[in-house]
Amino acid sequence: MKTRNMIMTAGIALASSAMVGLATPSVAEAQEYEMAIATLAPENLTNNEIYPGLVHFRDLVESRTEGAIDVQVFGNSQLGSEVETGQQVQAGGRSIQSTVMSSGAMSSFYGKYQVVTAPFLFENWRQAWTFFDSAWFADFMEGTVQKANMRYLGTFDDGGGFVAFTNNKRLIKTVEDLKGLNIRVEENPAHVAIMNAMGASATPLPWGEVQTALETGLADGQFNAPVVNTAYNLDDVTDYTTLTGHVYNTQTWVVSERWYQSLPEEYQKIVTHSAREAIQLAHGAAGMLASASWQQSCEIFKKCYRMPADERQKMKEMARPAWKDWIINDFGLKREVVEGLLQKVEEVGKNLKAQDYQTYGQ
């Protein structure tokens, strides 16, 4: 593709330049910069939203720079763990220029990100997407430059964001059904606080130990997005699944600030503009995959249940205060930071409903 682009006629190059609204780099500048992107996501275009989004980004950037930026996407943790790749990006992007990290890993570089682990943060995908794609959240993430030498590019919805329980004991239909269950959680104290507040016992374990823990009874259940629950065949080791959406899992995409600043301004614009387009594509893919995976869950698990809004509200009223206490008093995040983000999310949700009715309902 790069070779074909480099031998394009001047007329075709000018037409391509006009299409993207940016000046086309000269042929002599081809392959001037390398951009290696690391992700845990499988190198699969159909079972996750992150890899297709990054591939789309690669194609856009290489086309729009006429090959001057050579983008390579490495999935399946080929380049190391999230923290390891994050450290290399933070160090200046000599070998890895960009990475995608889950909330726990992102919080280890930028502590304020931990606030995104709030239970029952979003009511629906549109609210989540509008919030994460807002100027307000971009400003919130500007701290990654000062704290970690990373520039924020966007937020992927990890497996569709909203999570579902799976467990071996019983179908969870009310918050009372959680009492006495031993639930595996990520190695994130926020998730421990949330589970304990709702009456379950939390067992933090790395992902690689989940299947064994469920098989041996070390854990009765776990929660992840339905995409993860079906892709990793958790129906083989658990019988029941309940869609609660009590946590919205994210994957944060960052790029080395040093590497980014080494680019000409026109390439910086191409990188940021292409990233935003890739994120939009991934949002749609995440929603589709999550919806399809939930339907599949109801076919392969013994029983499935979608928790209604009133019961989710009861869970929220138990989980949110405990999480606030942990993040402010134990984790040490300032109350105004926590309240500010929660208020903005609520504002986004209200505005969307009002705009929808004003535009389509009156």
Describe this structure in words.
The chain is of the alpha/beta class and 362 residues long. The chain contains 15 helices and nine strands. The longest helix has 36 residues, at 265-300. Helix content is 50%, strand content 19%. The protein is globular. Strands 1, 2, 3, 4, 5, 6, 7, 8 and 9 form a nine-stranded mixed β-sheet that branches. The protein has helices at 2-6, 10-20, 50-64, 82-90, 103-109, 125-132, 135-140, 143-148, 189-197, 210-216, 226-231, 257-262, 265-300, 309-330, 335-361, and strands spanning 33-38, 69-74, 98-102, 150-167, 182-185, 201-204, 221-224, 240-256, 303-306. Residues 1-29 have low confidence and may be disordered.
Could you provide a short overview of the structure?
The protein contains 15 helices and nine strands. It has helices at residues 2-6, 10-20, 50-64, 82-90, 103-109, 125-132, 135-140, 143-148, 189-197, 210-216, 226-231, 257-262, 265-300, 309-330, 335-361; strands at 33-38, 69-74, 98-102, 150-167, 182-185, 201-204, 221-224, 240-256, 303-306.
What overall form do the CA principal axes indicate? globular
Mean pLDDT, rounded to whole units?
91
Number of DSSP-assigned strands? 9
Rg from Cα: 22 Å
Furnish the topology, listing elements before pairings.
Elements: H1 2-6, H2 10-20, E1 33-38, H3 50-64, E2 69-74, H4 82-90, E3 98-102, H5 103-109, H6 125-132, H7 135-140, H8 143-148, E4 150-167, E5 182-185, H9 189-197, E6 201-204, H10 210-216, E7 221-224, H11 226-231, E8 240-256, H12 257-262, H13 265-300, E9 303-306, H14 309-330, H15 335-361
Parallel strand pairs: 1-2, 1-3, 5-6, 5-7, 8-9
Antiparallel strand pairs: 3-8, 4-7, 4-8
